[in-house]
Design a protein that fits this description.
The protein is α+β, with helices and mostly antiparallel strands and about 425 residues long. The protein contains 13 helices and 21 strands. About 30% of the residues lie in helices and about 25% in strands. Strands 1, 2, 7, 8, 9, 10 and 20 form a seven-stranded mixed beta sheet that branches. The protein has a seven-stranded antiparallel beta sheet with strand order 17-16-13-14-15-12-18. The chain has a three-stranded antiparallel beta sheet with strand order 3-6-5. A hairpin with a 2-residue loop joins strand 13 and strand 14 (about 240-250). The longest helix is centred in the last third of the chain and has 16 residues, at about 395-410. It is elongated, with a radius of gyration of 25 Å.
């Protein structure tokens, strides 16, 4: 890529007002909002079809927003950055759009302990993608598929040289919107291209890492617990100040499930922070042993713990943590251990299994109201490429809608 005028030869140009790189959730939302305002909009999508991550989300049902979305549900070096966009385009606004297309949906708790407010399609995620594409078509948006950007330059307007089906195609636009997503799920085409564009125009990148991703045991924990693969329990997982009461799942390499995915976004893999897990939140499982007149031994402890944990996990825990004596003090320590299992992961399952990318284009160099660069007028960054990462449960989609709408409404006509 070049950021110098005159570096792209003499292209036969297709002229637009707005060029949007990426046809995912944020890009399509930006496109329809800009198109509604009479702007000539082109979406350049490198895949053979748009919205591929929309289609696989929520198990194919698309958890498209969360009723209780707020700034506290997001991570960023500037935790207040997302506040303006989220306030200007709310879940209610997106639901109004869903209603105009008569898309049936429901609020769902995947299990009783999970947080409320998660909205899913009754039928499939194709309803949401179809709605966005219909709105784009109605607004005159042109979507160019199988289009790979090769160069970007700027001289009063943005010039983008791309290749499509073996041919070079050149586009110009007064505004350029980067909606290329992050690094998660590379098998679906994720690349670092958006960050390269940002660097080309002088932007800083907050170091990226996999977010909402399973974590991997160290050697000691692996030896003790990997045989429990498939066992799940409702736990409270904490990392730093963040704490989540959700399901946890043992895997062949470590831990997964919503509680762990949530905590993983806060885990600094290059800093080695601990993840603390309460395996039996709200349960005083040793009380019968401490207060009763019955036996105090491994058999009694195993029976008591089986009442609050799956049998395989209860048995393994007692095997690994049985006290040398069975005094009240030893039982209190045994109780505390269940509620403060401190594990230090050696890594995560990486971008291949990460649902999002944490980090990204620094918000210090973007307008929180418009998502426009403070370094290059007419350049915008939206969605996952920005250093704003949501919790599990529809929050990342709401950020895509909100940041896309903010940019689409702000581009000068």
């Amino acid at each position: 890529m070049q950021n110098e005028p005159g570096q792209m030869g003499k292209p036969t140009q297709q002229a637009y007002d707005v060029l949007i790189l990426g046809g995912g959730a944020a890009g399509l939302m930006c496109a329809l909002e800009a198109g509604r305002r009479g702007l000539r909009v082109a979406v350049l999508e490198r895949a053979e079809k748009p919205g591929k991550k929309i289609l696989i989300s929520g198990g194919g049902r698309c958890n498209f927003t969360n009723l209780h979305c707020g700034p506290e549900n997001f991570l960023s070096e500037n935790p207040d950055f997302c506040r303006s966009a989220l306030a200007r385009y709310t879940p209610t606004d997106f639901l109004a759009l869903v209603a105009t297309h008569n898309i049936p949906y429901h609020e769902k708790r995947p299990y009783p302990e999970s947080a409320p407010g998660q909205l899913f399609c009754d039928r499939s995620a194709t309803d949401i993608l179809g709605m966005l594409l219909e709105e784009c078509a109605a607004a005159g948006v042109q979507i160019h598929l199988n289009t790979r950007v090769r160069e970007i330059a700027h001289d009063r307007a943005f010039a983008v040289r791309a290749s499509r089906e073996g041919h070079e195609v050149d586009f110009t636009g007064r505004a350029l919107v980067v909606a290329t997503g992050g690094l998660s799920i590379p098998k679906m085409g994720a690349t670092a291209f958006g960050y390269e564009v940002a660097r080309q125009f002088g932007h800083s990148i907050v170091p990226c890492r996999p977010g909402l991703v399973p974590i991997v045991f160290g050697r000691g924990d692996a030896r003790e617990y990997c045989e429990l693969a498939g066992v799940s329990a409702v736990v409270t997982a904490s990392c730093g100040r963040a704490s989540f009461r959700e399901k946890m799942l043992f895997t062949h390499r470590g831990l997964s499930g919503p509680a762990i995915l949530q905590a993983s976004s806060y885990w600094k893999w290059n800093g080695g922070a601990e993840v603390t897990i309460d395996l039996a939140p709200g349960k005083d499982w040793t009380a019968p042993l401490r207060n009763g007149a019955g036996r105090r031994d491994v058999v009694a402890a195993r029976a008591a713990l089986r009442k609050v944990l799956p049998q395989r996990l209860a048995d393994r825990w007692i095997d690994q943590h049985a006290p040398e004596d069975w005094t009240n003090r030893s039982l209190e320590l045994l109780e505390q251990g269940i509620h403060r299992w401190e594990m230090r992961p050696v890594g995560t399952e990486g971008y291949e299994k990460a649902e999002v990318t944490a980090g990204g284009v620094s918000t210090a160099e973007l307008s929180s109201k418009t998502m426009e660069s403070t370094k290059m007028p007419g350049l915008f960054f939206i969605g996952e490429v920005v250093d704003v990462t949501g919790w599990l449960g529809g929050f990342n989609f709401q950020w895509a809608w909100a940041s896309g709408a903010a940019a689409g409404r702000a581009i000068e006509s």
